[in-house]
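INTERNAL AUDIT FORM
Audit reference: QA-55
Scope: verify that the stored structure record matches its stored sequence.
Auditor: D.O.
Record contents follow.
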Amino acid sequence: MATMRLVRLMMMMIILVLSLATSKRVLASDPDILSDYILPQNSTTVNATYFTYTGFRDIFDQTPETFKATKASIVEFPALNGQSVSYAVLQFPPSTLFPPHTRPDATGLLFLLAGSLEVGLIDTKNVLYNQKLQAGDIFIFPKGLIHYQYNSDPQLPATAIAAFRSASARAVTVPPSVFTSGIDDVILAKSFKTDVDTIKKIKAGLTS
């Protein structure tokens, strides 16, 4: 009974965040630029080093203990300013996941380098599309839709590369957005048709 109630809570939570995300989709995108590229502040010229990012050189020599996303966005790689593109390396140790989240700024394209991943997305009609990916597979996550990635293998890690159609592709993760943002427990309990004790247990699990 408790398990079914938590499942229902999660589905309602996903619908809530999905509706908030999709309502802002048309407003979130990178502006077009009228030049070839944007120079750094207080600079009048650049060389090839400006267009080169070396932050991934040793990344595959490291084995994280938990899920890790290493980004090459406008923050790490300023040459991306105005180019409407960014990159991330996603590392999944055994039995880890990137929880349900949305990217209001960009479509995402995921390429699985090694291992296997269970991925899924939910469209605006609340239809779930899920797939088990193998190394070499590509999966697209349309802009603004809630999606997830899960390495269900208890022994083998998985590694993926994600490309985004934005220089700053923000990730809005569903559970903390709802349960750690300061919304009153009573409001959450009424919204998800449950009791305050259940809400407190969910919050405790997210902050532990």
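Auditor finding: record pair retrieved intact. Helices lie at 2-23, 174-179, 185-191, 196-207.
Action required: none
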